[in-house]
Amino acid sequence: MTDLTHIRNFAIIAHIDHGKSTLADRLIERCGGLAAREMTAQVLDSMELERERGITIKAQTVRLDYRAANGGSYVLNLVDTPGHVDFSYEVSRSLAACEGSLLVVDASQGVEAQTLANVYQAIDAGHEILVVLNKIDLPAAEPKQVQQQVEDVIGLDASDAILISAKTGQGIDTVLEALVARLPAPTGDAAAPLKALLVDSWYDSYLGVVTLVRIKDGILKRGMRIRLMVTGAAYQVERVGIFRPKSEAVDQLGPGEIGFITAGIKQVADCHIGDTITEDRRPTPSPLPGFKPSLPVVFCGLFPMDSADYEHLRESLGKLRLNDSSFTFDPETSAALGFGFRCGFLGLLHMEIIRERLTREFGLELITTAPSVIYRIALTDGETIELHNPADMPDPTRIRQMDEPWIKATVFVPDTYLGNVLKLCEGKRGTQVDLTFAGTRVMLVYRLPLNEVVIDFYDRLKSVSRGYASFDYALDGYAAGDLAKVNILVNGDPVDALSIIVHSAAAESRGRQLCVRLKDLIPRQLFPIAIQAAIGGRIIARETVRALRKDVLAKCYGGDVTRKRKLLEKQKEGKKRMRSVGNVEIPQEAFLAALKMGDE
């Protein structure tokens, strides 16, 4: 068991693409975690999607052995965290397992929105923070200005910030020495009853459920009988190990150490993230505070292209849920799309990642309905309900008040593009909270309704700022909204999969857009098809798909005009009958194209 004073647990936090994973690579390389031939770029990003997009999705941990300049041997437990706002729950879990953080800031880009969000999480967790300025080898690097920016915007003392280049390896030794000298050692009592924090869990097809733990007190050994305090279930520990970053079995884990265990747990659902693990015979009197559960923010329907794939989709979602406990799914049916699932996600990127993984890892072809958020509806009978799916909205006469979720968004943008960003936020019904200048960059804080953000806000923000704006948000409660449900009717029949809830002022334009888009997508029939957008019983927009006309006069060579008229009347009667009984099949491609977010 390692001496507590020689352990350092730290997380690496930063905005997307500021070099967290590259810095982790250099630290692993310098401490001999992997041989040179085994090193790859972003070694801790093990998922194919992470490598392709160049982002970290799952927080990863690794144990390194370091011999300091003072001759002492130290154990460093490094946790590499995601930078994207949708995965901030991964960050909060990682921070709870550590005592200190390396705050990585790009010396050419400066402080960005998620730098701020993540550093505040670390401060809330009571961390000691080391400021590291990365990418100082770039010609555009301005370390002096960025140091000043860290002090002005975040309020941290950056006078002793460490200047490094994670790409070339410059300054890595200084970082390691600073970790040992400036970060606090963990505390804990090896003689006390076992108290361990369940940081993460995932499913391994060979080992079953693997659980990542941080020991606070006591000792965790192989063969010990443990109890999970939330569920009260008891298990026998089969294997104890650490990641270097390859998994390596050890006999026991003591206070301050981070490692993994397997204990014959069958389902990840049995492991509640943030739970306290204790010894079954000698339990700890009080559990650890744990984490706030991650709550889904954005909902959408997932339907298989081929209805025969429904069972395959159910199994695939179940398997994905084993490795990512932060999304939810419940069965739902749609008259237009058949059987599928209503899924809840932490944000749009999270939704995209899950969809992509279902397509790649399980070979599924899916239709995704437009994303929606959770509305709270107060009914006239005094009951309050939560609405996840616009199709389930109760009759407007039963609704007393409808509340929508709002967010507090922080946008960092160069002052050149400030006007464009202000115009965009105002157009999305935003109210300005704060505007501060830091050098040539502006920090904007806005309150925005979440349903305006989930559609296309992020894409529009990137285009109006030429890609220079960074964006972060946190939920900021509910507020009453003047909202309306827009139904799309095709030949008088409502298509539930195309229902949307929008602000009343924008309802007409959104309804018209959808009608125009569908007009080009639905194939022509032998009778005209009416496409209408309606709020309740009031039609607000209409387009018509013109009928195909069969030439019934082809067999008339000359002859009496009355015969031609008789044939045309007969055709007219047939079309009238066909319109009343004819069924319009909306092709899957039309759904996909109509549900493509964003105003074209």
Question: What is this structure, in a nutshell?
Answer:
With 600 residues, the chain is α+β, with helices and mostly antiparallel strands. The protein has 13 helices and 32 strands.
Please tell me how large the radius of gyration is. 29 Å
- Terminal CA distance reads 62 Å
- How would you characterize the largest beta sheet? 8 strands, antiparallel
Q: Tally of extended strands? A: 32
**Structure annotation, total helices:** 13
Helix content: 25-40%
Q: CATH superfamily of the largest domain, called what?
A: P-loop containing nucleotide triphosphate hydrolases
Q: Averaging pLDDT over every residue, what do you get?
A: 78
Number of domains: 5
Read across the widest sheet, the strand sequence of neighbours is 11-10-16-7-8-15-12-13
Residue share in β-strands: 25-35%
CATH fold descriptor of the largest domain: Rossmann fold
Given the C-alpha coordinates, what overall shape results?
elongated
- Helix and strand composition category: alpha+beta
Low-confidence stretches: 42-59
Q: What CATH architecture label of the largest domain applies?
A: 3-Layer(aba) Sandwich
**CATH top level of the largest domain?**
Alpha Beta
Oligomeric state? single chain
